[in-house]
Write a structure and sequence with these properties.
- By secondary structure, the chain is of the alpha+beta class.
- The chain is built from six helices and ten strands, in the order H-H-H-E-E-E-E-H-H-E-E-E-E-H-E-E.
Length: about 240
Amino acid sequence: MNISEFLNAGTPEERNQYVLTPIETAPQMALYYSLNPIAKIDPSTLNPDATAVLHFPETTAIAAVWSGQDGRKIESVFRLENDEWKLDWKHFAQYSAYPWPLFLAGSGPAEGEFRLLARERLAVELRSNETISIVLYAPHFGNPETTGYQSPEFVIPRKNEDGKLLETAFKLEKIGKQPFNPDLPNLAPEEMIRVRVNVRRYETDSERKFEITKVIACHWYSIDAPGMDTAIPVPEKTQAR
């Protein structure tokens, strides 16, 4: 379990040996790095800010937050696979199937899975509505407080499973908690949550539109378990991060 070995590997092919499900991940990693430059990080300049054990269903993970001398922050999550600790690369890279700004601009596949940041629109004014309104942003690797271009508005019914996941995650954020309740700093910008979503792009009357077809999870781990119980009310108490 060593983030240094992964970071010292110079190519996607070399990095692939250190990640979870390498056969499945290899083509995804190659495509991702063909569209996104590999971040050059000298592991000797990293200092651990925090570490924690994450209890996933049927497995345990070791998570850490690292700070670089340049102010960059990165995260690592390692899980046991075939008796070896392997990096959750999709979480580390904040992997999306295609760059979010290009997808919004009409490029690439018409549907894909994305790791994004979500912000609730008019949270107080619309809290009694039957729908929840959100906008999505691409994260900025190494600079968690920086967000990219804002998406159009997405409206989701509160009572379906997607709406329940979002509503619970936003309530947890307000009291300083996250899915799986890790003892780690929340690096998402204030009033935002992390999401893994499937989004579809289509055209109606020559107008480009977007639809969330599924909220997979309100975290970036490569595991679909929600890490929170949407049936248990979240206390209405604000807590500083």
